[in-house]
Design a protein that fits this description.
Layout lengths: L1 E5 L4 H10 L6 E3 L11 H11 L3 E4 L7 H6 L1 H21 L4 E5 L28 H21 L2 E7 L1 E3 L12 H15 L3 E5 L5 E6 H13 L2 H6 L7 E4 L4 E3 H12 L4 E5 L8 E2 L4 H6 L7 H17 L12
Parallel strand pairs: 1-2, 1-3, 3-4, 4-5, 5-9, 6-8, 7-11, 8-12
Antiparallel strand pairs: 8-10
Helix pairs in contact: 1-7, 2-4, 4-5, 6-9, 9-11
Length: about 325
């Protein structure tokens, strides 16, 4: 089986490569951004026709935290829509048998019921701080569903919880909350700082999923026969939530990171900064009913991620360039 992993240099892409490395009979196709800009429609179509993969996993995206999403909505909307349209349409044009489209839990309304079921999609207003990114991801879901309905393709979308793990972006402003805090607490512990400031009230709740668990979920879903996958869906949309089904407050996360990094000072919260969505915890019963569950606890995942981060820091590296994970 020939599998094209779009976005193989990103955190998710690297986890997928690790997952496929233990599988026999699988040839993984990759293309660095220098060779293939996924925002270039003609180039993507030519690449897909030339390589003729059996399966495509769309893991490429422009990603970032609240600050980056708020500061660059045009790029988050236009880049992610172009990437999704180009890869999904080119996959169909090259007669790709199966495609996995990776979305995000931010597709769901700000006021969605908790835990969030797949049926909550398009039932309310989105969180303003990441609306552009969410709209692009919703468009990708709709495009996959449209191809399935019109052409009988087998394109599947997975909506993961907040991801973290080795290969993450630790930029203090552009990173997601967990790696940004890990960087901040690490620096504070090494400098002997007395305080660390955290954006927001600390009371919003988030669910976190280790990237290796997402990679395992992708391989699990790829192996599902079409009839079994579609029988688990709640309606015409071919989407499934992927997560641990457990969430914590940002204050609890900050304390856990303080323990992992050895920071012993005071944690201060800045309520003048945005919190984002009050709570995001996914309803993962459908994936659980299919036989998949997350394996790594947050404590285990944090310890592994920090160990990797320290090793990268000592070698002069700080994660991946994440402005476009392709």
């Amino acid at each position: 089986m020939r599998v094209f992993v779009a976005g193989h240099r990103g955190m998710v892409g690297q986890a997928l490569l690790r997952g496929f490395s233990s599988r026999e009979g699988v040839e993984v196709i990759t293309a660095p951004r220098e060779q293939l800009d996924l925002r270039d429609q003609s180039a993507v179509a030519h690449f897909m026709r030339r390589e003729r993969p059996d399966t495509v996993i769309l893991a490429a995206a422009r990603v970032g935290g609240i600050w980056a999403n708020h500061s660059y909505p045009v790029e988050f909307l236009s880049d992610n829509m172009r990437i999704a349209f180009n890869v999904i349409s080119a996959a169909h044009g090259a007669d790709v048998r199966q495609l996995i489209n990776l979305g995000s839990s931010c597709i769901y309304p700000r006021g969605a019921p908790q835990p969030i079921p797949e049926e909550a999609l398009l039932t309310g207003a989105l969180e303003p701080t990441n609306e552009a990114y969410a709209l692009a991801k919703i468009a990708a879901i709709n495009l996959c569903d449209s191809y399935n309905r019109q052409y009988g393709t087998d394109f599947r979308s997975l909506m993961p919880a907040n991801l973290y793990g080795r290969g993450d972006n630790f930029h203090p402003q552009e990173a997601h909350v967990l790696p940004a805090l890990l960087q901040r607490f690490h620096d504070a512990a090494r400098k002997g700082a007395k305080t660390v400031q955290v954006w927001g009230t600390g009371q919003v709740r988030r669910e976190f999923l280790h990237v290796d668990d997402l990679a395992r979920a992708c391989l699990f879903v790829l192996d599902l026969p079409a009839a079994r996958f579609h029988s688990a869906l709640s309606g015409p949309r071919a989407i499934l939530n992927v997560g641990s089904g457990r969430d914590i407050t940002i204050a609890q996360l900050a304390k856990a990171i303080a323990r992992v990094t050895g920071f012993q000072g005071r944690i201060e919260f800045d309520p003048s900064k945005p919190d984002g969505t009050p709570r995001k915890c996914l309803d993962v019963r459908r994936m659980s009913d299919l036989g998949w569950q997350a394996q790594l606890s947050l404590e285990e995942g944090l310890a592994q991620t920090y160990e990797w981060f320290v090793a990268q820091s000592q070698s002069g590296l700080r994660g991946l360039p994440q402005e476009l994970c392709a």
